[in-house]
Amino acid sequence: MKRILLLLIINLCSCAVKSQEKLGFEIKSNLLNLVAKKPSFSIEKTFKNRYGLELSYTMGELNLGRDYKYDGFLLRAKWYARKIDVDEITPFLGIYAGNLNKTIVSNNAYIHPTGFLSFGNNRNFKANSIRSGINLGLLYLPTERLKKKMIPLNSKM
Predict the structure, then answer these.
(1) pLDDT tens digit string along 139-150?
(2) Lesser CB count within 10 Å: N end or C end of the chain?
(3) Secondary structure of the chain as H, E, C letters
(4) Where are the domains of the chain?
(5) CA geometry: angle at 91 spanning 89 and 97, to 5°?
(6) What are the pLDDT digits (tens) for 23-58?
(7) How many CB atoms lie within 10 A of CB 94?
(8) Can you give the pTM of this predicted structure?
């Protein structure tokens, strides 16, 4: 019983020390995807400030001459060239794999009544695909956990 109690106390102490560290989670959004009418979201977990694992989901539609809708998941593993620090640009290399579901519908063809002459195209296309590859990028964190630097009320200027 004493051993179990001792192991429990050691475990609680290690958990208390570990709780002071950063979690290493980042929640991100690609606001440029609003052009496609819906933003994409991703969650990244960093390990030892050098490695990252990111899961993202995207969906949207682009209606430029056709009805184009898509959605999909992406899992990306990243290796950062150096330790991630605040106010520094950190390059990274990543590999990714995921799926993409898309639907394309366009009805902009002109077909002559005789049926021998036509311009444009009509599409009714639906596909589910698997995508994979590598990417290079840059990470920049402007402030640590988005803390605001505030001036105390009792300070003199």
Answers:
(1) 887 775 544 444
(2) C
(3) CHHHHHHHHHHHHHHHHHCCCCCCEEEEEEHHHHHHCCCEEEEEEEECCCEEEEEEEEEEEECCCCEEEEEEEEEEEEEECCCCCCCCEEEEEEEEEEEEEEEEEEECCEECCCCCCEECCEEEEEEEEEEEEEEEEEEECCCHHHCCCCCCCCCCC
(4) 20-98+130-143
(5) 135
(6) 677 787 777 777 777 778 889 998 888 899 999 998
(7) 17
(8) 0.64
